[in-house]
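Possible regression after last week's pipeline update?

I re-ran a chain I had predicted before the update to compare outputs. Posting the input and the new output here so someone can diff against the archived version. Not blocking, just want to make sure nothing changed silently.
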Amino acid sequence: TLTQARRAMPTLLTQLETPARPPQPRGKAPGRAKGFHPKPAKRHPVIRKTSKKHKKRKTATAT
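New output (post-update):
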């Protein structure tokens, strides 16, 4: 029955082996080479925005 199949599923899954291979040790990454000194980052000049020019307002004339 369905209930019996559900109940037996965990034991069945533990008996089946996974198709994936077990993980292999890879060792440590080499990292930065000994004696290597990276060059300092390139500096860029600051670009400042110019002040905005105000448009002249038309004055409303009273009639």
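Follow-up from reviewer: compared with the archived run. The chain is about 20% helix and 0% strand. Marking as no regression found.
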